[in-house]
Write a structure and sequence with these properties.
single chain; membrane
């Protein structure tokens, strides 16, 4: 049986978490723009709703398809049996719970960034002193940071799958991939710089 943990796409998407600290710093800077509104919880609700809800909803209903890079993705018929088993793992209850826990942690991080935002106020003086602009910057950056954290967390969930669970996992139906997963990019038969994984026997 092949070791599914050597799947190149998993490690590529796991490495994406390196972008998250930069995005969270942008959230921090966005929250420093302008004067805070009297109802601070309204600002946090705004930023949190933009950043957390869309990505969490995606991971719960149509998880991100790992077998894509930038603007290209593998056609469903080109996804190997081993890769389709990985897709099946993304639909498990454990992965959904893991996504929910990650969202709670990210919400707590957003609260801490909000608390420390005044420290960054001198850094953003070049921007217009518009609070709504700052909240939009923070919201979009928080959305992207959620994406670049939730996907690697899902990868970790797959990598931590026991060998017994892996053996009992059935490959996901090729016909259902496009309807049940979020697939980005132009569909291709092969991404040339990534070797195709062999099917498990």
């Amino acid at each position: 049986m092949n070791n599914f943990r050597t799947e190149p796409f998993l490690w590529i998407h796991l490495a994406g978490i390196a972008v998250a600290p930069l995005l969270l710093q942008l959230v921090w800077l966005g929250l420093a723009v302008g004067d805070p509104l009297p109802l601070f919880w309204l600002e946090l609700l705004f930023v949190g709703s933009i950043g957390i809800i869309p990505i969490l909803w995606m991971q719960w209903t149509r998880p991100f398809d790992f077998f894509s890079i930038l603007l290209v993705c593998l056609k469903p018929e080109s996804v190997t049996e081993q890769q389709r088993k990985i897709l099946s793992l993304l639909k498990t209850r454990n992965l959904k719970i893991l996504s929910g826990i990650t969202s709670v942690i990210l919400g707590a991080i957003a609260w801490q960034l909000y608390q420390w935002a005044p420290i960054a106020s001198m850094t953003v003086t070049i921007l217009p002193h518009w609070r709504l602009l700052g909240l939009m910057i923070a919201g979009v950056a928080f959305l992207l940071s959620n994406l670049f954290i939730q996907i690697p967390v899902s990868v970790l969930g797959v990598l931590l799958t026991s060998n017994q669970q892996w053996s009992n996992t059935q490959p996901y139906s090729t016909e259902k991939i496009l309807s049940d997963f979020t697939v980005f990019g132009f569909r291709v038969n092969k991404i040339f710089f990534i070797p195709l994984s062999e099917d498990n026997s």
